[in-house]
């Protein structure tokens, strides 16, 4: 088997995510044969450093020995069981640990199998909790430039035109309030003030605000100050609006703390986690909420207040085993502290990009670095050129429009950081 053979078989039968398939007439698909650590290897023997953690999911490298062992152990014990009426050890253990690790006050875990469906869970729970209180709150607020997934509800609260516009006639009515325009405290304050003005007018109708704490991922890695979370928490309390923190991307250490909400020391009413939850191994997501919300659903069956939402693979045992293994690594390897050195090193190397005349600005939050290019028309697909240059030189970068970013697995070495950042530097210099 070589690249060409598998590529042709693929294009006969597959439709790939987030892709104009015609692009593959000129842009070769890359079949991956195997992967280890930060390295992906194709069928022709080329290797690539996974600088974007395979769409932001991988934390401790591919085919991680420890995680592999834990999954294999689980595989021979229990692969999956219905989670309605039944339970298992991996999911109980994982839930106990998540309750301990997440911001104080989050006490109940509801599982699903991807980020978008967990967002749907949080939206439905929020609406339903108000309904069980006798209130009819049907509007969700989100931030401009936000991204929360691709299912209809999740897309409705998102604000990235590229994904949303086509489906606009199908979507829920939602309201957007401005995201802080930069990383300053003033911008955080100004944006919070806009949100409060909206609440003054519409609080009766607003069920929740959903936001990506500190970094808007698919919104081109836009970053803002943690004070915004603090202001939003206060406003939500004042107007009886739920706070949904979508930490699908920023959770599990990406921002420098285990959870981004900890930077502001706040507890949301709903915390949505996925991506890094299983170390990038298996699809799993969870919504954590408070006992206060949980209690609103807890009554005799005949009162019809239960949350009757389910997915076939809710709380899958293999995925839970991967998640427990991932948390073990955080615990044993002092990951959050060690990442501080990696983040510092990436931050120093990032400065160099400012020398390039087509670089507009740089920014960083923890383990995420981003570079804005300037002077290009969006029709030029400048990101694609960087992507192609990267692949030719052994680095998987996947720019978002004219924003190049780095979000590597936490096991990356300084030499490997040199390699990915030097490659990006050369790519930008050449375009
Ligand atoms: C990726 C992402 C989602 C959607 O998760 P999927 O597993 O891709 O459905 C939701 N919110 C944020 C912030 C994300 O980055």
| Distinct ligand kinds | pyridoxal-5'-phosphate
CATH architecture of the largest domain: 3-Layer(aba) Sandwich
CATH class of the largest domain: Alpha Beta
**If strands are numbered along the chain, what order do they take across the biggest sheet?**
4-12-11-10-7-5-6
CATH superfamily of the largest domain: Type I PLP-dependent aspartate aminotransferase-like (Major domain)
Any idea of the CATH topology of the largest domain?
Aspartate Aminotransferase, domain 2
Task: Work out the strand percent.
Answer: 15-25%
Rough shape?
Answer: globular
- Helical stretch count? 14
Total strand segments: 16
Query: What composes the largest sheet?
Result: 7 strands, mixed
Mean pLDDT: 97
The SSE string, one letter per element, is HEEEHHHEHEHHEHEEEHEEEHHHEEHEEH
Query: Which structural category do the helix and sheet elements fall into?
Result: alpha/beta
Terminal residue distance: 34 Å
- Rounded to an integer in angstroms, the radius of gyration calculated over CA atoms is 22 Å
Which range best describes the helical content: under 10%, 10-25%, 25-40%, 40-55%, 55-70% or over 70%? 25-40%
Question: Can you give keywords for this protein?
Answer:
seven-stranded mixed β-sheet, 431 residues, globular, Aspartate Aminotransferase, domain 2, four-stranded mixed β-sheet, 38% helix, alpha/beta, binds pyridoxal-5'-phosphate, Aspartate Aminotransferase, domain 1, 2 domains
Commentary on this structure:
The protein has 14 helices and 16 strands. The protein is an alpha/beta fold. It folds into two domains: 3-63 and 335-430, Aspartate Aminotransferase, domain 1 (Alpha-Beta Complex), CATH 3.90.1150.10; 68-332, Aspartate Aminotransferase, domain 2, CATH 3.40.640. The chain is globular, with a radius of gyration of 22 Å. The mean pLDDT is 97. It binds pyridoxal-5'-phosphate. The site of pyridoxal-5'-phosphate has 14 residues, from helix 5.
